[in-house]
From TrEMBL:
It comes from the Bacteria. It comes from Corynebacterium suicordis DSM 45110. GO terms for molecular function: hydrolase activity. Keywords: Hydrolase. Residues 9-227 form the Inosine/uridine-preferring nucleoside hydrolase domain. This is Nucleoside hydrolase. InterPro entries: Inosine/uridine_hydrolase_dom (IPR001910), IUN_hydrolase (IPR052775), Ribo_hydro-like (IPR036452).
Length: 241
């Protein structure tokens, strides 16, 4: 699956904005889209189930960070109970191995929306950053300029992995992601998906002191990686049912 001329890997921990980001990536990519999972909001195994059900994209299971414990902010399934509970076998092929292959492909893009555990393991697998061929590795992280108290769970969940990958990652800060991905609450309320998006929308809007809009952080990372420069709000509206 990773032998084509151009591939995009989205590495996700299965939260609300991750699901929307995978839907956006699916809409924007004309090449091969691969999805891998990492423990964060939920376990890597649960993230695979949730993302597969919510996006209809094949998913490869990856690793949980060392001493991982689930985040409770997005519910037990990562999407506030929207998963139907039906087990779907994940795709064959180890997620870390897929990312390792992508790292040595100049035409690849790797978009990390959760902890960098898989990326760090893949980097070790190829022998370190000097062997990386792709120049397109993006991740959400960094709270500079963000409201006081906003947590950078992606970095904090596996700080060793974040440090290990720092030389190859282009970071999209929480502030930049929030400002360019803010969507209007009123328009989103009309979508069938808003029932599972709402808890995330309310919480993140409150974090930024916003009343009528909320950020969809991970969509901003996908847009940056895929060089999408138009207004993100319409893209996000089309990503909901």
């Amino acid at each position: 699956m990773v032998d084509g001329p151009s591939i995009t890997i989205v590495d996700t921990d299965g939260g609300v904005d991750d699901v929307l980001a995978v839907r956006v990536a699916k809409a924007l990519t004309n090449d091969s889209l691969l999805v891998t999972t990492v423990g964060g909001n939920v376990s890597a195994e649960q993230a695979a189930q949730t993302v597969r059900f919510m996006t209809d994209v094949p998913v490869h299971v990856g690793l949980n960070p060392p001493d991982w414990e689930p985040e409770a902010r997005h519910g037990a399934d990562g999407v506030h109970g929207a998963w139907d509970g039906v087990y779907r076998p994940p795709e064959p092929g180890d997620a870390v191995n897929l990312i390792s292959k992508a790292l040595v492909m100049p035409s690849s893009r790797i978009i990390c929306l959760g902890p960098l555990t898989n990326l760090a393991a893949a980097l070790r697998g190829i022998g370190g950053s000097s062997f990386v061929q792709t120049s397109q590795v993006f991740a959400l992280g960094g709270t500079k300029g963000a409201p006081t108290g906003l947590r950078d769970t992606n970095r904090n969940a596996d700080t060793s992995a974040s440090a290990e990958c720092s030389e190859i990652v282009s970071w999209v800060s929480m502030r930049d992601a929030a400002e360019c991905s803010a969507v209007d609450v009123a328009q989103m309320k009309d979508s069938a998906d808003y029932s599972w998006i709402e808890p995330f929308a309310v919480r993140t809007a409150q974090s930024w002191g916003w009343i009528d809009r909320f950020p969809v952080y991970d969509v901003a990372v996908v847009a940056r990686a895929l060089n999408f420069t138009s207004d993100l709000d319409e893209l996000i509206y089309h990503a909901v049912a």
